[in-house]
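User
Here is a favour to ask of a fellow structure person. I am asking you to supply a protein in sequence and structure-token form. Please set it down just below, with no commentary around it:

Assistant
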Amino acid sequence: MIAPRDHLAVLLVGDDSPTAFSASRSVPTKDLALEVRGVGPIELPVSQATARQLCQVARPARYGQGERTVLDRAVRDTWEIPKSRVKIDARRWNKALQPALDRLGGKLGLSPGSVLRAELHSMLIYARGQFFLGHQDSEKDDAMIGSLVVGLPSDFKGGALQVQHGAKTSTYRGSAQSLSLVAFYSDCRHEVKPVTSGHRIVLTYNLLLRPAGAASDASLDAELIAKLADCLRGHFAPSDGPDRLVYLLDHEYTRRGLGPARLKRTDAQRARLLGAAAELAECDHTLALADIHETWSAVEPEPHYRGWNRWDDDDEDDEDYDEFDEDGTGEEYDLDELIDSDISLDSWIGPSGRVEQVQLSLRGSEVCAGTPSEELEPYSSEYEGYMGNWGNTLDRWYHRGAVVVWPRTRAFAVLAEAMPAWALDELAAQMRLGDSESARAAAASLAPLWGTVAPEVQAKGFLAKVMRVARIIDEPQLATMLLQPFRLQALTPSHAKAVSALTAAYGEEWAGELVALWSSPRSQYRYVAGRETSAWTESSSRLCVALGDLGDSGASMARHLLGAGWQWAENALNRDLRISPPSQREEALLELAAPLAAIIQCASSLALGEVCDRAVGRLRSDGGLAGCALAVLRALPRADWPAIGVDAVAAHCRESLINELAGPERSAEDWSIDLPAGCDCDQCETLCVFLADPTGRTYQWPLAKAGRGHIRGRIDSTESPVTYQTRRVGRPYTLILTKTVELFEREAEQRRSSQEDLIWLVG
């Protein structure tokens, strides 16, 4: 059974009116009088002598590449004369041009009453061998919807203008006796084939649209609208079904060019029909911009070579250039099977009537289209050849306009998913108007989606706005729902007043539960901010001090935050102590010193003795934390040690260092190595015996492959000063272990470092 959304797409395609993406018209030469500075009046048809004069006053044409304008004759090879050098008798020309534009607009499917206006861009001269590869014009004005090419009659061959939209292509060759006008939409790819003889001369214009007034729906097919409305009702009928329907239009649009009056061809008619059907089905609708990414399995065509360096002046219709494309290969990949597809909306016309930026991923069950994307021209593509386990795939990216429809009963949640900040403003406005019941109901409707959409918002001040709304919503469960997606890492001193007010409103127990949610490592929500917990903990002291200055509610929240910070630090200590390579373990522990110092110092300033005692006790209790403890002391002012309570840590470190240095230095004949605790298998016991032998330096050990790998891993993970190599003779092979002089170098360096630390502590 066909899905309602697919039935809707079929119905809309069936209503296609006979419009085109490009259109042409001829105008007599007597209607155009022009001259070019440096050449003088231009007689029509243009003679070859005049064409050569035009080339002499022209410059090589550039083209747009992203945000740059570049000169590359491998892409665009033509001469350009800027409009400032071209003078046209506007009064005489407009008498013929405007009626021609009206007729072209009708062929292009513009709404009745719309007015096209042509704005001169430049004059172009294509000499023999010159061309312009396939490209797409940028919209240089908010009102621009397309381009107009006015071909001046001259004697030339080749140089055909090809305009493409989707799988359809139209070819225009110009005229030797009259003016040829070609108009096409700006999202159409087009190219100029190489000129084989003579000169092709054109005037190029930007086509600007003055929209008609709001179109009446009276002329629309009422029966079709009713069928479309039934499709919408069927699409939204399941209680667990989609909240929106997105119909992809055939053309692409820019943000500044998005609007009902500026839709192209059949897009305008389909959008009007969908809008009328939405009203009948009690739905809202808007226009949007969609980004589509498709991954296809694809077949790379067999290479073959086609040249265009030999010109045939006798064959104007030579088709050797028909497949010449932007990369010069003239080849297209054959699509096989759609592997994956991602569709999202990045802009739409919001409730304010302005184009708003949104970030909304769509599910396939929400999307339909009259024209599949693979039948359109992608704005970018990338082929991945065969790579062994994957490859032979073609990624294609598209921009398309879209009509978005949703039931009015679900309007707030649908809009909120696309525009979370707007939803917060609406809730605040309702609360200010005293409609608290509606505001809380609307807030509750956000629960299924808020945890997904809120973390994606990167706008500055968004969390502060959430906190304000969570406070005025005056309902603790809703406040928790709004705040839960965020993390401790997002909090800064600027949030102190807001979180203090929340604590005052909902109580200390509520605040503690919220902090637990914010700091839970198993939370389903992602981090809003990219700051690491370590960096946040180090800087959070400013936040806690700011909270402590805000009375009891602020101090209460500060206690919860410090408690969460210490819990993270303690878990981090336990985690890092389990790291096997000693150098990596020490490096990780040293990185915890700064946040630990910040926690201790802040807890002391807020008179939170319990946190201080736990931190100090932990630093004194584990010998593996000696380096970290010293780094914490170095991060705190020595004069503050007694007040903060870390003088006990300093005393513990002094005692440990004195005991360490009191022992004898290693003898030059003592090659014994202590293997850190770990595996106690028979092979590791044998390894321990060899390492502990003060006289043994080398051990030859017949050992199977698995055993050799285990011993090598044990040596590497403990960073023992031992080398290993395998003698591949006999069975099993022999693993040769050799102790190195690095054993003595390490101990000497450790003793020197301990002496320096002791001097610093005593001093």
